[in-house]
Amino acid sequence: MWFLGSDCHFLDMPYIAVVWDLQHRTLPWFPEVSYNGEWDAREATNAWFLRRATAVITGTQVGSDELIRFYQIQPKQIKILPHPTPASALLAGESGASMPAVDVRGKYGLNQPFLFYPAQFWAHKNHVNLLHALALLRKQGREIDLVFSGSDKGNRAHCESVTRELGVTPFVHYLGFVPNLDLVGLYRQASALAYVSFGGPENLPPLEAFALGCPVLAADIPGAREQLGDCAIYLDPCSAQNIALACRQVLDDCDLRARLIAAGKIRAQKWTSTDFVRGVFGILNEIEPVRRTWGVQ
Question: What is the residue extent of each domain of the chain?
Fold first, then answer.
């Protein structure tokens, strides 16, 4: 069996687990991984399911080190297969001008250059420090807006309250979930992706941004540099001043923007869903000589 996550399934057969993150271990103080018994539930699931797995897939060496440290998984059982760039983003990036254009500025009332952050409203996504960075940029005379997309997981009201307190309500756009064509348009027309999440070690939106020609600002968390290489500007997600500085860099330096866009497009092609599936079949080929030693139980 190949499970696309680390959900617990009690079964007596060889299986492969995929681990996208272990945030209840790396970020245990956040409410989304600690309240209402969530930490205990995740820990109970992982402690059994991951230790019992024939192979565990993770995307980075940082992720592999976490599996060994937190759950004592044998290194030979861990397989590193990087998170693939979504095929839809690659296709849209290759289609370019031939893809139907969506006027996201007109549709969503975006009258100024904007930073884009697609993320669910969990606390660890760090919308609040990005809002503080926006307030600093506006005080410095930068005419820039901030666009959020994603559903509310319990923290949107707090973000909206901070938006009001900082006096930046006219410049922040809460779009909720958006259609895929709109998402493509937002990436293409944004001044940059501001991906400030504390969570990792891998993240999907920077890969989408790479494929669609959007410069990437990324939180300098464990695993980020391994995933994104030299294709992003890295920032301290705890510092509004540092986030604002990174934004000014990408807004003011045209050569830097061009370099980031070109490097990102190359990086987006480096590891695709086809590569990922081939990697899984390689793992299955390794397991097969062992599995054939017993019959059906």
Answer: 16-84+272-291, 88-268
By the 10 Å C-beta count (0-12 exposed, 13-18 middle, 19+ buried), 255 is classed as exposed
The dihedral through the CA atoms of 178, 184, 188, 189 has a sign that is: negative
Asked whether 297 and 12 are in contact (CB, 8 A), the reply is yes
The pTM of the full predicted model, rounded to 2 decimals, is: 0.94
- 180-189 helix and 87-95 helix, angle to the nearest 10 degrees: 60
Instruction: Give the residue from 190, 148, 187 showing the smallest Cα distance to 169.
Output: 148
Superfamily covering domain 16-84+272-291: Glycogen Phosphorylase B; (3.40.50.2000)
For residue range 198-227, list pLDDT tens digits in order.
Answer: 999 999 999 999 999 999 999 999 999 999
> Does domain 88-268 bear CATH number 3.40.50.11270?
no
Structure tokens at 67: 């599996």
Half-sphere exposure of 66 (CA within 13 A, CB side): 25
